[in-house]
Design brief:
By secondary structure, the protein is mainly alpha-helical. The chain has helices at about 1-25, 30-40, 65-80, 80-105, 110-120, 140-145, 160-175, 180-190, 190-200, 210-230, 260-265, 270-280; strands spanning about 55, 55-60, 250-255, 295-300. It has three domains: about 1-40; about 55-240, Orthogonal Bundle (Lysozyme), CATH 1.10.530.10; about 250-300. The protein is about 50% helix and about 5% strand. The N and C termini lie far apart (about 70 Å).
Length: about 300
């Protein structure tokens, strides 16, 4: 019996020693941590495609300056992974709204990527005062028929703002002669681009010496176009169900003042927050509407929101 106990004790001690040795081998020492880091995460140089274009206008990638600038934007936007995934998610939600309006105005479909780099497909606010997905300035909005004041700001109305962007781009294309220059003018203004073309005696965006923002502008658009169209190629992995979808809505016509949007929302089984999510152009908790203007307010179809207060 004593011999058997000693044997069992010896086996147990040996097992503990083996476990200890195994644990030491797998412990997070500097050496094996470094090996794991190398094996689990890799950063690769990207191969710039041989052909890239914007709205059918080829990018002159045989020019080494153009190639390097394109490479930069592909690298920056590929390895900013969190932002990239958000662009895929939001594009699924907002591109179906933007695309038909671009088509209506005969604007190339590539301009939807301009909205991506302008705002990240959010209702952003710029330091200069531009607002909404298309980053429209107050004067530009009003000149193109948008209502812009403290009560209603239709720069936040995606459909109407997209129409204004289309009108602006058509004028730019007519004045400057190419879609590439029209896109650059969306950032720097028609007069700004025209002046630089004249000063530098060139006719093409890719021949212009520009400031940092406008100089990167087209390259960023083309980079997002390339990445969003080739997720697997650039290492983005997701399922269809991971992407955002639009909540179906119906429109309610309003041609009077609304004194309280909280009460208004409750009539349709939603709360004020949800009303604002679908109508960000309503800037205050009431609608003045002294002129009896006709507005259409989007109301989500029943069953898409689980309200905690119910």
């Amino acid at each position: 019996m004593k011999i058997a106990q000693k044997i069992l004790a010896l086996v147990g001690l040996l097992s503990l020693c083996l476990l200890f040795i195994y644990a030491l081998q797998d412990a997070p020492t500097d050496e094996n941590f470094e090996k794991k880091l190398i094996n689990d995460y890799n950063v690769y140089a990207l191969q710039v495609p041989e052909h890239l274009d914007f709205s059918g206008e080829a990018m002159p990638l045989n020019n080494p300056d153009i190639l390097e600038r394109m490479d930069r934007e592909l690298l920056v936007n590929t390895y900013w992974q969190s932002n990239g995934l958000l662009m895929f998610k939001r594009a699924k939600k907002y591109f179906p709204i933007i695309e038909p309006i671009l088509e209506k105005y005969n604007i190339p479909n590539d301009f939807k990527y301009l909205a991506v780099i302008e705002s990240g497909l959010t209702n952003a606010v710029s330091p200069a005062g531009a607002r909404g997905v298309w980053q429209i300035m107050k004067t530009t909005g009003r000149e193109n028929g948008l209502e812009v004041n403290t009560n209603v700001d239709e720069r936040y109305h995606l459909e109407k703002a997209t129409e204004v962007a289309c009108k602006y781009l058509l004028k730019s294309k007519e004045q400057l002669g190419s879609w590439t220059l029209a896109a650059a003018a969306y950032n720097a203004g028609n007069s700004g681009v025209s002046r630089r073309l004249k000063e530098q005696n060139v006719t093409d965006y890719y021949d212009l010496l520009l400031g940092e923002e406008t100089g990167r502008y087209l390259f960023r658009i083309v980079a997002l176009k390339e990445i969003l169209n080739n997720p697997n190629k650039y290492g983005f992995n997701f399922r269809e169900k991971d992407l955002y979808s639009n909540v179906p809505t119906y429109k309610v016509e309003v041609d009077t003042a609304v004194t309280d949007f909280t009460q208004f929302a409750e009539k349709f089984g939603i709360n004020y927050k949800i009303l604002k999510l679908h109508n960000p152009w309503l800037r205050e908790p009431h609608l003045n509407n002294k002129t009896r203007k006709q507005y259409f307010i989007d109301i989500p179809e029943e069953g898409y929101y689980d309200l905690a207060s119910k």
